[in-house]
Automatic annotation (TrEMBL), chain A:
Reported function: Carrier of the growing fatty acid chain in fatty acid biosynthesis.
Family of the protein in this entry: Belongs to the acyl carrier protein (ACP) family.
Keywords attached to this entry: Cytoplasm, Fatty acid biosynthesis, Fatty acid metabolism, Lipid biosynthesis, Lipid metabolism, Phosphopantetheine, Phosphoprotein
InterPro entries membership: ACP, ACP-like_sf, PP-bd_ACP, Ppantetheine_attach_site
Keyword Cytoplasm on entry: yes
Taxonomic classification: Bacteria, Pseudomonadati, Bacteroidota, Flavobacteriia, Flavobacteriales
Protein name in the entry: Acyl carrier protein
Domain spans labelled Carrier: 2-77
From TrEMBL, chain B:
Pathway(s) of this molecule: Lipid metabolism; fatty acid biosynthesis
E.C. designation(s): 2.3.1.179
Residues covered by the Ketosynthase family 3 (KS3) domain: 3-414
Enzyme class: transferase
Biological source species: Psychroflexus longus
Gene3D superfamilies in alphabetical order: 3.40.47.10
Lineage of the organism: Bacteria, Pseudomonadati, Bacteroidota, Flavobacteriia, Flavobacteriales
GO molecular function, one term: 3-oxoacyl-[acyl-carrier-protein] synthase activity
UniProt record similarity statement: Belongs to the thiolase-like superfamily. Beta-ketoacyl-ACP synthases family.
Catalytic reactions of this protein: (9Z)-hexadecenoyl-[ACP] + malonyl-[ACP] + H(+) = 3-oxo-(11Z)-octadecenoyl-[ACP] + holo-[ACP] + CO2; a fatty acyl-[ACP] + malonyl-[ACP] + H(+) = a 3-oxoacyl-[ACP] + holo-[ACP] + CO2
Task of the protein: Involved in the type II fatty acid elongation cycle. Catalyzes the elongation of a wide range of acyl-ACP by the addition of two carbons from malonyl-ACP to an acyl acceptor. Can efficiently catalyze the conversion of palmitoleoyl-ACP (cis-hexadec-9-enoyl-ACP) to cis-vaccenoyl-ACP (cis-octadec-11-enoyl-ACP), an essential step in the thermal regulation of fatty acid composition.
Keywords associated with the record: Acyltransferase, Fatty acid biosynthesis, Fatty acid metabolism, Lipid biosynthesis, Lipid metabolism, Transferase
Protein name, UniProt field: 3-oxoacyl-[acyl-carrier-protein] synthase 2
InterPro entries noted in UniProt: 3-oxoacyl-ACP_synth-2, Beta-ketoacyl_synthase, Ketoacyl_synth_AS, Ketoacyl_synth_C, Ketoacyl_synth_N, PKS_Beta-ketoAc_synthase_dom, Thiolase-like
Lineage: superkingdom: Bacteria
């Protein structure tokens, strides 16, 4: 697992209080990991802080799975 | 329209002197102080370095990790206290009509720690408003009753009362009236507060409201004593299940007491100072007697607001003499804040619970830490000093007054068919 992926995973485990094993690439924040709308906003903000990036609202709307978050951040950090 | 009778069928408490009803009562009758040096933050720069914190409370014992992050301490206390009260009431949550169960909850401030920490974070940043999405929903005072209803599915009336230190007394009176009028069968009521934070201590210190007896915290809350020097900040929650009498009887509920009335008034005088003649306090007790259908001579005990401030204590006792006349000296007057400290918005609830338990046990908890008589206080009044007193109690009253001049008083009566 890439460094980015493991840091993303750690944030999700911490913020959503889920088990590490559940945080798989295709897992959806809301459908699989129990996040509500507020949790999702908080996750995006934590990603921004952790990776020192800005994720505009219209792009944040497209980040709904673990894999999408990792890809977005990897792209942004290139 | 005939008003319905309302009874208390469940109690819950999370206080600085006990984390449930039985521990709370045990400490009350043994005159235990909840005051100690503050553990939550470094107090070296603070004028007052002690408070009545909750002891041995680990939120993770009650909530999962995600819930803990979503709940300010005042909301955690609300859920813990109300859970105990609901369980104690024996209400079957699978059977009860949840549209007929409401929650009215008092909090004087709400999520002060959440507010403080979010603003500190913001101030440390570059001005970009990066506030946590849980900031507002964790902080607002009404999130406590909101969370109680979400947890149990109660779909009746639901809101918070905010009247500073009278908040939970106002909540109980509103809950009483909704049942009286037939809007609900059951109301979960009470209050919670968690203001032992830098902002809370610093703010109250600036008002010169808090005791600064740092060398002897346990002796600091000393209502009616000549050397009292301010209140001791407390925290926690108290919950009562109020229920329509026939509803309670039909399900064979145990009944602690009948809630017979409430009084409300305002000083209309000053933001924080009590009226020197206690006119609002006189009015609130008269209102409560009238609303409860009582004569002054009927009252056996009064759990006073009695915060241990120089002005407030004297004004309240003068008002009691004015309202009750000669009978005042027959009343067991006490202040359980001498033990719990001042729980602000939760005070009315935890003190009403103390009054109900006193009635149940025919034993009045003491006003501890009394050493020196205050010459401004009539020595004929029985202030239940330092030791509990046995007393058959038919009617108990509980006073609470809040900054802003809000006064509320609730009356309980021993259950009679």
């Amino acid at each position: 697992m890439s460094d980015i992926a493991s840091r993303v995973k750690a944030i999700i485990v911490d913020k959503l209080g889920v088990d590490e094993n559940e945080v798989v690439t295709e897992a959806s924040f809301t459908n699989d990991l129990g996040a509500d709308s507020l949790d999702t906003v908080e996750l995006i903000m934590e990603f921004e802080k952790e990776f020192d990036i800005q994720i505009p609202d219209d792009q944040a709307e497209n980040i709904s799975t673990v894999g999408q978050a990792v890809s977005y951040i990897e792209e942004a950090k290139k | 329209m005939e008003l319905k009778r309302v009874v208390v069928t469940g109690l819950g408490a999370l206080t600085p002197i006990g984390n449930n009803i039985s521990e709370y009562w045990d400490s009350l009758i043994h005159g235990k102080s909840g005051a100690a040096p503050i553990t939550y933050f470094d107090t070296s720069l603070f004028k007052t370095k002690f408070a009545c914190e909750i002891k041995n409370f680990n939120a993770n014992d009650y909530f999962d990790r995600k819930e803990v992050r979503r709940l300010d301490r005042f909301a955690q206390y609300a859920l813990v206290a109300s859970d105990e009260a609901i369980l104690d009431s024996g209400v079957d949550l699978n059977v009860v009509d949840k549209y007929r169960v409401g929650v009215i909850w008092g909090a004087g401030i709400g999520g002060l720690e959440t507010f403080q920490n979010e603003v500190i974070d913001f101030a440390k940043g570059d001005g970009t408003p990066r506030f946590n999405p849980f900031f507002i929903p964790k902080m607002i005072a009404d999130i406590a009753p909101g969370n109680i209803s979400i947890k149990h599915g109660f779909m009746g009336p639901n809101y918070a009362t905010v009247s500073a230190c009278a908040s939970s007394a106002n909540a109980m009176i509103d809950a009483l009236n909704y049942i009286r009028l037939g809007y609900s069968d059951i109301m979960v009521t009470g209050g919670s507060e968690a203001a032992v934070t830098q902002a809370g201590m610093g703010g109250f210190n600036s008002m010169h409201a808090l005791s600064t007896r740092n060398d002897d915290p346990e002796k600091a809350s000393r209502p009616f004593d000549a050397n009292r020097d301010g209140f001791v900040l407390g925290e926690g929650g108290g919950a009562l299940i109020l229920e329509e009498y026939e509803h309670a009887k039909a399900r064979g509920a145990k009944i602690y007491a009948e809630v017979i009335g409430g009084g409300m008034s305002s000083d209309a005088y000053h933001m924080t100072a009590p009226h020197p003649e206690g006119i609002g306090v006189i009015a609130v007790m008269k209102n409560c007697l009238e609303n409860s259908g009582l004569k002054p001579e009927d009252v056996d005990t009064i759990n006073t607001h009695g915060t241990s401030t120089p002005l407030g204590d004297v004004a309240e006792l003068k008002a009691i003499k004015q309202v009750f006349g000669e009978h005042a000296k027959n009343i067991n007057i006490n202040s359980t804040k001498s033990m719990t400290g001042h729980l602000l918005g939760a005070a009315g609830a935890v003190e009403a619970i103390a009054s109900i338990l006193a009635m149940q046990n025919s034993l009045v908890p003491p006003t501890i830490n009394h050493e020196t008589a205050d010459e401004n206080i009539d020595s004929e009044l029985n202030l239940t000093l330092n030791k509990p007193q046995k007393r058959e109690i038919k009617v108990a009253m509980s006073n609470t007054f809040g900054f802003g001049g809000h006064n509320a008083c609730v009356a309980f009566k021993k259950m009679e068919e």
